[in-house]
Amino acid sequence: MPDHACLVTVVIPVFNSATTLWRAARSALKQSVWPLEVIIVDDASRDASLAEAHRIAECDSRVRVIALPENRGKSHAMNRAIAEARGRWIAVLDADDSYADDRLAILLGAAESRGADLAADNQSLLDAGAGRVVGSAFAEDRPDGPLTRGEFIAGCDAHAPFNYGMLKPIVRACFVRRTGLRYRESARLSEDFLWLVEFFAARGTAVLVSRPLYEWTQAFGSVSRRWTETGAGAWRYDFLQARAANAEVRNVLRAPEHNDLIALLDRRDHALRQLHWLREMSRARREGSVAELPRLLLAHPSIWPILTRRVAAAAVRRAAGFARASGPMVAACHARRMTARGFPIVRNACRLACALLNR
Questions:
Q1: How confident is the model at residue 349 (pLDDT cuts 50, 70, 90)?
Q2: What are phi and psi of 30, to 5 degrees?
Q3: For residue 320, what pLDDT is reported?
Q4: Which end is more exposed in the chain, N or C (fewer Cβ atoms within 10 Å of the end residue's Cβ)?
Q5: What's the angle, vertex CA 201, arms to CA 198 and CA 204, rounded to 5?
C-alpha cells in the first residue's frame, strides 16, 4: 500500500499478551474506515505473543509485525511503530483492550468536522476477573466537543479511578511529525499522560466524544478485586521511575506559557510520591515488618487521608459482600466492626505523629 493511500494506522504494543492479542487486533481490523493498517509491536514478550502476532499477520495483509530484540517498554514500541506508520492518522490500542466496530469512523468524523489534531472518547471499563463491563470512564451526558487544555488539566487527578491522562486518542500523523512529538522512553508508567501533556504544550487541539468506544481492561478489577496478568511487570509499581520521567517533561516545559502544565506535573509528582509510600506500606505489611509501618506513617503524613479513605472503602466493600450473603443487619454490624478496627489505627498514628512533630 502506498504511504499516501493509508487513512489510519492502528498501533498495538504487545508485551506478554498472547491470550488477548487476537481480540484486540480483530477489533481493529473490523473497523469500517478504509484503507487501514495495523502494526503489532512485540516488546520482547516471554510468552507466545510474537507467534500470535505472526499468525494474525498471515491471515490479513493489512497487519505488519515488528519484533523488538529487547524489552524497552510501551513508549519505545510506540515510537518505533509511529516512525514506520503510513496512515494519515495514528491510533493506539493496548493489547488487552478493544475497539467498538465504529470507533475510528466516529472519531475521524469528530476530528475532521472541527479541524482538530486529536480525537479521543469515553471508555468502557472491563473487569477481566469478573468477565464484564462495570461502568464507563466518565459521564456519557457530557456533550461532544473540544477538550481544551484547561479541561484536560482539571481532569487529571492521579488518584481518581480514571483521568484524562488515560485517554487513548487518534492523532494526525502530520501534527506528530511537524512538532516532533514522541513518547518519553524513560516512562513506563503514565506514558500516555506525559504524551498528552506534551501534545497540549505543542498547542494541539483536541475533541472528546462522550460515547464509550474504547474498551479498557482495568489493571485491578473494581468488582473482582483481582489484578490482570497480561502485560504486567515490576514497572507497574515503580512510582520513583515515574517521578523521574515526570521531572524530565517538567524540565522541558520551562517557558512561562506552560506554567499551568508545570503545576499539573507538580501535582502529579506529589501523587506519585504518595503512591510510592503507600506501596512501601503494603510491602512492609505483606512481609510482616510490623515495626516499619509506624515509621512510614510518621515519616509521611501526606498519605494519612488516602489511607483513611482506603480503610473506609474496604469496610464498605466488605459490608456489601456480607449484605449479599447474610442480610443488611449483619452487614451493618460487620461494617461497624471493620471501621472500629481500621480508623483508630490511622487516627492514633496521626495523633502520635502530630505530638512528635509539635515537640
A1: very low
A2: -85, 0
A3: 66
A4: C
A5: 90
337: which 3 cell numbers? 466492626
Amino acid at position 74, single letter = K
Given the candidates 3.90.550.10, 3.30.420.10, 3.40.47.10, 3.30.2000.30, the CATH classification of the domain at 3-241 is: 3.90.550.10
Which pLDDT tens digit goes with each residue over 288-337?
Answer: 887 787 778 777 777 777 777 777 776 776 666 666 666 555 555 554 55
Question: Could you state, in order of their start, the residue ranges of all structural domains in the chain?
Answer: 3-241, 292-357
Closest to 154 measured CA to CA, from 140, 164, 166: 164
For the chain, give the mean pLDDT. 87
Instruction: Quote the pLDDT of residue 161.
Output: 86
Instruction: Measure the CA–CA gap between 171 and 181, rounded to whole angstroms.
Output: 11
Residue type, 272: L
pLDDT at residue 308 in the model: 78
Q: Are 168 and 160 in contact (CB under 8 A)?
A: no
Long-range contacts of 237-243 (CB under 8 A, 24+ apart): 237/279, 238/188, 238/189, 239/189, 239/272, 239/273, 239/275, 239/276, 239/279, 240/276, 241/186, 241/187, 241/188, 241/189, 242/187, 242/188, 242/189, 242/190, 242/272, 243/269, 243/272, 243/273, 243/276
Surface-to-core class of residue 302, CB atoms within 10 Å of its CB (0-12 exposed, 13-18 middle, 19+ buried):
exposed
Q: Which residues of 111-139 are buried (b: 16+ CB within 10 A; e: fewer)?
A: beeeebbbbbbbbbbbbbbeeeeebbbbe
Burial of 40 (0-12, 13-18, 19+ CB in 10 A): buried
